[in-house]
Specification:
The structure is a single chain. This protein has 357 residues and is α/β, with parallel strands linked by helices. It folds into 2 domains: 91 residues; 257 residues, Alpha/Beta hydrolase fold, catalytic domain (Rossmann fold, 3-Layer(aba) Sandwich), CATH 3.40.50.1820. Helix content is 51%, strand content 14%. The chain has 12 helices and 8 strands. The chain has an 8-stranded mixed sheet, sandwiched between helices. α7 packs across α8. The radius of gyration is 25 Å and the shape is elongated. About 2% of the residues have low confidence.
């Protein structure tokens, strides 16, 4: 077998392997259709390249043929690398899932009004996004009060978040006297679609319209944790009515910071392989409401340097930065120090809303 034949067969085998791999990815993750399409295109290009080289290079000198096939192999390898990195990046950022136990528990609470709280399942006007509303306890149903619009971390769902606000004493204290609304991101819970930057932004805009449009809403306080902080900042910057406040727990300056903390290769041209670019720093300067940023030196998911960079992008003088010592990323939501600062922040906004009512 000649060198040309060996290189040709290698490219064909690699293309077949890629097709088999992307089909396996699709079976394991039905939401990975974009990756499947990219993989199939790459395989098709490889086949065409091999066919063209076999037609036009037979009579050329041996070294030219070897160089041409080697170059085609490098291009194909880079294409495969791009598909793999793109998919790995999505897997590290998005974790769409349904928390069945939490959903069933909330459904039972909504039907029986257990735990002394009132919960209802909600959806946007077009039915695309689904979530939950936890109503303020001890307040008449027709009385105006603030609404906390919460954007989850990537491992959370709306049902899990609402249960924490209702059952956890610290979080319940944070939102005392307020309704809490949380919608699932596209692909999470009962929300339709695929989680991507564009679809998550669209969800956020609809969520804010829903929360601020309720007849009992006196003001809307936006709150985000982890990946939800970028969505929260974007929402505050795009809101038609100025929010009552913005609370950010472990925020990041851009989506690249999240990728690079997992796999530090998203620089230069490789940035193009990131689907969640989320330039939060661009939106921060447009935020006009009081803002509280909380970050930890011990955060292993969102580097505190990223949070500090974002803090510097806010133009409002009503922006505060709080550093928490020793708390890891997943420990921040259960931190008493974090909760006490949030309680004070929400308390001020709640009193201002009463005066303005």
């Amino acid at each position: 077998m000649t060198m040309r034949e060996r290189l040709s067969n290698s490219l064909i085998c690699a293309a077949f392997a890629l097709i088999a791999g992307c089909v396996t990815v699709l079976i394991a993750s039905p939401g990975a259709r974009g990756t499947l399409i990219a993989s199939l295109i790459t395989a098709l290009v490889a086949f065409i390249t091999v066919l063209v080289l076999n037609i036009f290079l037979p009579k050329n000198p041996r070294m030219i043929r070897i160089f041409a096939f080697a170059f085609a192999g490098v291009v194909f390898a880079f294409a495969v690398f791009s598909v793999i990195i793109y998919n790995l990046g999505n897997m590290s950022v998005y974790h769409p899932h349904v928390d069945k136990e939490e959903t069933e528990k909330l459904t039972a609470i909504a039907e029986k009004h257990t735990l002394g709280v009132e919960v209802e399942e909600i959806s946007t006007s077009n039915g695309t996004y689904s979530g939950w509303r936890l109503k303020a306890s001890g307040i008449a149903s027709n009385v105006k009060r603030p609404v906390v619009l919460y954007f989850c971390g990537n491992g959370e769902s709306a049902s899990k978040a609402i249960l924490r606000f209702s059952e956890n004493e610290l979080w319940n204290s944070v939102v005392r006297g307020c309704d809490v609304i949380c919608f699932d991101y596209p692909g999470y819970g009962k929300s339709t679609g695929v989680p991507r930057e564009k679809s998550m932004k669209a969800m956020a805009v609809e969520a804010y319209k829903y929360a601020s449009g309720l007849p009992t809403t006196s003001t809307t306080i936006i709150m985000g944790y982890s990946i939800g902080t970028g969505i929260a900042v974007y929402t505050a910057s795009e809101a038609e009515t100025v929010p009552g406040g913005l609370m950010l727990i472990a925020p990041y300056n851009s989506g690249y910071d999240l990728y690079n903390n997992e796999l530090n290769i998203f620089h230069g041209p490789v940035k193009l392989l990131a689907s969640f670019k989320m330039p939060v720093y661009r939106y921060a300067g447009k935020v006009k409401c009081p803002t509280l940023i909380i970050a930890s030196e011990a955060d292993e998911v969102v580097p505190i340097q990223s949070s500090k960079k974002l803090f510097g992008e806010f133009s409002s003088s009503k922006t505060d930065f709080m550093t928490v010592e020793g708390e890891r990323h997943n420990d921040l939501p259960s931190s008493g120090k974090v909760a006490s600062r949030l309680i004070a922040f929400v308390g001020v906004i709640r009193e201002e809303a009463k005066r303005d009512a």
